[in-house]
């Protein structure tokens, strides 16, 4: 079964940027539509952006215009470019398929200080 490993998180000041990566152990093209999710303490996990196999994208209103999702099927890697970060973006970020059918990874912590 494909495994997904997230990386790229860290501590950043409000207004800063981070780029997250999601590396798959197998073909991400075959996984179809994929997404980035996040979970803040005390909150449910939420889908913030998703991308189809050929690149069509969709974003949650809370990140629209600030985050950009992309994928490189040849490298089996998906990315999330996060700009103009806000303290409310603080969360653990995970990647998975749109239907969350792959076991969840460890995620990567993003902390935005005010």
Write the layout of secondary structure elements.
Blueprint: E1 4-7, E2 10-13, E3 18-24, E4 34-39, E5 46-51, E6 57-59, E7 67-72, E8 77-82, E9 91-97, E10 108-113
Parallel strand pairs: 2-10
Antiparallel strand pairs: 1-3, 3-8, 4-5, 4-9, 5-6, 7-8, 9-10
Number of helices: 0
Which value, in Å, is the CA radius of gyration?
13 Å
pLDDT < 50 runs, ≥5 residues:
none
Strand order of the largest sheet: 2-10-9-4-5-6
From N to C, what is the helix and strand string?
EEEEEEEEEE
What distance lies between the first and last C-alpha atoms, to the nearest angstrom? Answer: 40 Å
User: Which whole number gives the mean pLDDT?
Assistant: 96
What is the count of β-strands? 10
Measured by DSSP, the beta-strand proportion falls in: over 45%
Helix content: under 10%
Shape: globular
Label the structural class: mainly beta
Instruction: Tell me about the largest β-sheet.
Output: 6 strands, mixed
How would you portray this structure in words?
By secondary structure, the protein is mainly beta. The strands form 2 sheets. A 6-stranded mixed beta sheet has the order 2-10-9-4-5-6, with no helix packed on it. Strands 1-3-8-7 form a 4-stranded antiparallel beta sheet, with no helix packed on it. A hairpin with a 6-residue loop joins strand 4 and strand 5. It is globular and about 40 Å long. It starts with a strand and ends with a strand.
